[in-house]
Amino acid sequence: MTDVTATPPTRQRPWLDATLPVEERIDLLMAEMTLAEKVGQTHQVANINPDDDAGEIASGRISSSLYASGATAGNERDEGVLVGNIDAAQRHAVKGSRLGIPLLFGRDVIHGHRTVAPIPLGIAASFDPDVAEEIGEIAAREAAVDGVAWTFTPMVDISEEPRWGRVAESLGETPVLSGRLAAGLIRGFQGDDPSDPDRLAACAKHFAGYGLAAGGRDYDTVSVGENTLRNLHLRPFRSAVDAGVLSVMAAFNDVDGIPMHAHEHLVREVLKGEWGFDGVVVADWNGIGQIVFQGVAADKREAAALAIRAGVDLDMVSGAYLEHLEELVESGEVDLALVDDAVRRVLRLKFRLGLFERPYAARPGASNAPTPSTRAVALRAAQAAHVLVKNDGVLPLDDDAGKVLLSGPFVDDGDALLGTWVLDGRGEEVVTPEAALRERLGDRVTVADGRFPDVTLMQARAADTSVLLLGEHRSRSGEAQSVVDIGLPPGQLELVRAVAAFGKPLVAVVYTGRPLDLTEVLDLADAVLVVWHPGVEAGTALADILLGDAEPHGRLPMTFPLSTRHIPTSTHQRPTGRLIRADVDHQEGRYVDALTYPRLPFGFGLSYTTVDYGAPVLSSATMTTDGSTTLTVTVTNTGERPCREVVQLYFRDPVAQVTRPLVELTDWALVDLEPGQARVVTFDVQAEQTAYAGRDLTTRVDEGEIVLLTGPDAARLQPVSVTITSPKASSACTGRPEG
Ligand code: GLC
Fold first, then answer.
1. Could you tell which of 284, 290, 312 is best to mutate to test the pocket of ligand 1, judged by most ligand atoms within 8 Å of the CB?
2. Is residue 1 very low, low, confident or very high in pLDDT (cuts 50, 70, 90)?
3. Which of 444, 466, 484, 489 has the fewest Cβ atoms nearer than 10 Å?
């Protein structure tokens, strides 16, 4: 019988032998643990206090703490990470508890810690996994200084709902883009060895289907079948698991009536069983307790039983596990093996992070403020996030632009430019548009913060060119920030109309956490840039792009609908039984009172030059179900300026077991082109890239025709067909002997 009062001396703590395999260390430690101590490892608190919580820590009843503001959208600043508290609390755990199991500290380090990069939707606009990786690496290094060991990012929820504020935190509407950028962020945060003092555990969230919240209303119910889940929404999570993500967070929503925190099939059977995920599944904030609100548990005791059976390993702040798991096991209602599985996963994460060897903050007191080198990364990311969606030639601004008016609330508000989910970034560290353009244009630029639209109008009349900074404040995006209308905030369109009436060059720069209704802005302005919330180098990036010191090469990671009333509009569109002309030429649609198709398609973005696309060419018109073919497409810079072209490859499966998207992004290439330069872009097309969940939900690659499509965005594509054959049929074709 374990003497629960005895503190085994170090020499009797064999799990501390770092030369042993992790699984053996876990076995040795769990053999020592009481049920109470095991349950303690499944309990996470928020903002731990080393004094108030000392007893709970020493008794082994707390496993982890997250440092979070009000946990609503990260749009509230909190007191920051109190490194002293973290280390003090850690000492209570390591020195004061019977087994000395270290605490795990987490925080929403979503798109930067002190060096804030663009919001994830802006990172997605870069279409560059290397940018994502660099951002993750810097964020990890800076957060580790503050003792953070775990971040709750990347968010890989797939959504076609701009009304939903959390699209700001997402990596776009398509599984392949989201999955690859998530893998980049995971590599950046975790590195090859997450026990490295400068690395953090990452967390793919929110598993699953959160982006389907009804009406775009955050936290709302989700009605979706498993086929659509598997063919769209689960895929970036699979990419994250394949990239080695160490944790996954359960989603608040239900899926077809079953709360995700109680969804045994998707969490335990699919994520853990089918995919073999061996990391930690963490609840979202009070997600276990909320099963009661969802009307699927009578009380927290029942919620705890449902959640542990479903495979949720760590309870974020509800207390349901701490209060009820021990008694549920002792009563036989919950099998101890389920608790052991959860504890094993939590301990595995702590061992993998090296917390037993290095439990305290890596370098308390060291500076993690932005440096020239981290700012250079943030600048590259911000430039890459700039999507030029219209240009009648007014950009880049040159001397002919004359006197320039820079106007709008974002001109000098650094904090507003940081974006949602920024807990440690500082507005005063942001290079604002005003600062950057004053430095570059001197007295050619007049700045108006937009408080007085009448003053702005007079200044616009006096200027030769107006640059209006429009869009939504960062606090209107992110968690719990859904909107009923994706139009610009009140008053902005009126100003655009008035300034446009002067008939002078007008540039609209749109700061936003979501696709907005830009239809009228696109009609009235001579140039439009969508720049998201670009982070600490917002002003420098804008000045570089406006003045042509950097080429715009961002692409839209989400479709921009014609209006709120046109939602949903995205690349998720699948063929329907009633074919109308709209499926052919996008000139009409399913509304008799309005056009249907997107105002700006997924993948759209302009540069300061023009690029010609040749027809796609295949090395072979057939490939076997386990084979591949090579597709080449020649792109030519037919203009006067260099560019970075995002050459996109989509496919369509015209005949499948289930309806498949009209176009599905499957690959892309970032291609730098000098003026006049032509390059042959080569895609290695694997048949398995066309794999999907069939009618029986198993993954399959069909024989038959696949239409491959290349182009600059989802609406401007050129097709070429390849036929997938069975290996046997293929060898028969080539005359090779059987076998
Ligand atoms: C929030 C969010 C989640 C975040 C967590 C911790 O409610 O849903 O994304 O990581 O709580 O702050």
1. 284
2. very low
3. 484
DSSP secondary structure, 46-91, as one string: ES--TTTTHHHHHTT---EEEE-SSSSTT-S--S---HHHHHHHHH
The CATH 3.40.50.1700 portion of the chain extends over 375-566
Q: Candidates 285, 315, 421, 482: which one to mutate for ligand 1, based on the most atoms within 8 Å of Cβ?
A: 285
Q: Are 272 and 213 in contact (CB under 8 A)?
A: no
Cα of 284 vs centre of ligand 1, distance in Å, is 6
The atom of ligand 1 lying closest to the CA of 153 is 10
Q: pTM to 2 decimals? A: 0.96
Cα–Cα dist 162/197, whole Å: 38
Q: Hey, which CATH number is domain 375-566, 3.60.15.10, 3.40.50.1700, 3.40.640.10, 3.40.1080.10? A: 3.40.50.1700
Top-level class of domain 207-245+247-352: alpha beta
User: Where exactly does CATH 3.20.20.300 map onto the chain?
Assistant: 207-245+247-352
What is the structure's pLDDT at 586?
54
| CATH superfamily to which 609-734 belongs | Immunoglobulins (2.60.40.10)
Contacts of 23-26 spanning 24+ positions with Cβ under 8 A: 23/348, 25/347, 25/351, 25/356, 26/344, 26/347, 26/348, 26/351
Interval 51-75: pLDDT, tens: 999 999 999 999 999 987 655 667 8
Query: How many angstroms separate the alpha carbon of residue 238 from the centre of ligand 1?
Result: 20
Q: Which two tokens stand for residue 360?
A: 């305290």
pLDDT at 450: 86
Q: Positive or negative CA dihedral for 434, 437, 442, 443?
A: negative
Task: Tell me, in angstroms, the distance from the centre of ligand 1 to residue 509's CA.
Answer: 30
Sorting pLDDT into bands at 50, 70 and 90, what band is 184?
very high
Residue 729 has pLDDT above 70, yes or no: no
How confident is the prediction for the chain on average, in pLDDT? 94
How far is the centre of ligand 1, averaged over its atoms, from the C-alpha of 597 (Å)? Answer: 34
Specify the 3-state DSSP secondary structure of 123: helix
Report CA(571)–ligand 1 centroid distance (Å).
28
Which residues, in sequence order, are bridge partners of residue 43? 315
Q: Which atom of ligand 1 is nearest to the CA of 203?
A: 10
pLDDT at position 487 over 90: yes
Report pLDDT for 172: 98
The ligand 1 atom at the shortest distance from the C-alpha of residue 155 is 9
For residue 66, how far is its CA from the centre of ligand 1 (angstroms)? 10
* Residue of 238, 295, 505, 524 whose CA lies nearest to 394: 505
CA of 513 to the centre of ligand 1 (A): 17
Where in the sequence of the chain do the CATH 2.60.40.10 domains occur? 609-734
